[in-house]
Design goal:
The protein is of the alpha+beta class. It contains three helices and six strands. InterPro entries: Transposase_17, Transposase_17_sf.
């Protein structure tokens, strides 16, 4: 008896698409200020989870330290990653600055919470070399 094939839960289906897109995102606070504590990170995760849901994405993993956060996001192909990032940073900044006035000194951060830059890396699936080899080895028609 052969083992039963189990579908990959990360592979999602749309009307005309099958996808499995994950991105590793890193956001750094303005001037790398140490503003996060455990309570603030918990609230930041909650806010970012809601923003992802609004985009039809899923926040798979979240963690951070005093001056930055890491996210692993599973997102649909209709979402422009830059738009998702802008919303994640904008919405979280607004809520965190309003709710944690004792930890976020607007004067020293010049009215900003996050640095203007961010890291985004694609992840998951086969290693890049395996994909290159697969494409390279496709049979060309005669």
């Amino acid at each position: 008896m052969s083992p039963r094939w189990e579908p990959n839960p990360d592979v999602r289906r749309g009307r005309h698409v099958v996808y499995d897109l994950h991105a590793h995102l890193v956001f750094v606070t303005k001037y790398r200020r140490n503003v996060f504590n455990a309570e603030m990170l918990t609230r930041c995760e909650e806010i970012m989870r809601n923003v992802c849901a609004d985009f039809g994405a899923e926040l798979v993993e979240f963690n951070g330290e005093e001056d930055h956060v890491h996210l692993l996001v599973h997102y649909p192909p209709k979402v422009a990653l830059s738009n998702l990032v802008n919303s994640l940073k904008g919405v979280s900044s607004r809520y965190l600055r309003a709710e944690f006035t004792d930890r976020v000194n607007r004067a020293t951060m010049h009215g900003r919470f996050w640095s203007g830059s961010y890291f985004a890396g694609s992840c998951g699936g086969a290693p890049l070399q395996a994909v290159k080899d697969y494409i390279d080895n496709q049979k060309r028609p005669d």
